[in-house]
Amino acid sequence: MKIREELEEREKTFLSSHASLSMNSKGRVKKEKECDIRPCFQRDRDRILYSKSFRRLKDKTQVFLSPDGDHYRTRMTHTLEVSQNARTIAKALMLNEDLTEAIALGHDLGHTPFGHAGERALNAVCPEGFRHNEQSLRIVEKLENYGKGLNLTWEVRNGIVNHEINLTPATLEGKVVRLSDKIAYMHHDMDDAIRGGLITESDVPKDLARIIGSSKGEWLDTFIHDIIATSMDMDDIRMSGPVYDAFHKLRQFMFAKVYTNPTAKGQEGKVEEMIKILYRYYVEHLSVLPDYLLEMVDGGECSRERAVCDYVSSMTDRYAVAAFEEVYVPRSWAVL
Question: What is the pLDDT of residues 244-261, one digit of tens each?
């Protein structure tokens, strides 16, 4: 069958001259036989979607720790919203949707249990440091499939590791995801904060509302439309000056009212200590780690500290609490 070749020719015909074409990919570290029906970026998207690391995102904190309610976001729902925003922008700009979606679905695979609180804890105790974007890359390159990795294309890996706002992806699709990530968490964190009674839509400063609208739905609509209008037929992805300024001011508002709010974040100190304790325990009891991590340490591929970061960061919130209880909380006993 020549389905893949036909799809690649379709990309060449219909996508923007600034889009990343599957046929021009820089390829994979390990050479593979091409799929007969899927272009390479679609294949990468599928590999990420079916990975264990992706499934674990459903039990990892986005912002609010163990919220009392079923409608608060998790790291997985965040990822899906990033993907949706990014695909909307990519489609409008005639960019490669498969590449965009693959980057979006993989960008947060390396997040720790309990969100940024867990990330801060591991970064504080590990001599080599810990950053979730670098861990996401490490997962797809080395850790998934019990140490074999996913062998993704260069473009997807580049977009994943460079999704932070201070970094620059090599493709426009990666740049779309980088902005979509920030837009998504601003929108849904605001939604969750309103649901939790921390703020109301009317709390947003009036000078911002005049530019981006007065409701969270209007804000999302404004940001996405502005990116599309400003980036159309351009070799870059960006917002207009006024909207970008409003975006940063709204971000500052969120940090002041939500991300540092003691009601929402009051438990994070406990979480950070728990993660640090688990890290120190596993450094001293390395033998309990999965075999593939032990083999990486024994083979000189990584330090014991990095292997412990790999293990602890892969945990879901629930598993991390259970592991802590197993190690440090006394159990009742009875004489038979």
Answer: 999 999 889 988 888 877
Q: Tell me, what CATH number does 72's domain have? A: 1.10.3210.10
Three-state SS across the chain?
CCHHHHHHHHHHHHCCCCCCCHHHCCCCCCCCCCCCCCCHHHHHHHHHHCCHHHHHHHHCECCCCCCCCCCCCEHHHHHHHHHHHHHHHHHHCCCCHHHHHHHHHHCCCCCCCCHHHHHHHHHHHCCCCCCHHHHHHHHHHHHHHHHCCCCCCHHHHHHHHCCCCCCCCCCHHHHHHHHHHHHHHHHHHHHHHHHCCCCCHHHCCHHHHHHHCCCHHHHHHHHHHHHHHHHCCCCCCCCCHHHHHHHHHHHHHHHHHHHCCHHHHCCHHHHHHHHHHHHHHHHHCHHHCCHHHHHHHHCCCCCHHHHHHHHHHHCCHHHHHHHHHHHHCCCCCCCC
Residue 285 belongs to domain spanning: 40-192+262-328
Task: Please tell me the total count of domains within the chain.
Answer: 1
> pTM for the full model?
0.95
pLDDT single digits (tens) 223-242: 999 999 999 999 999 999 99
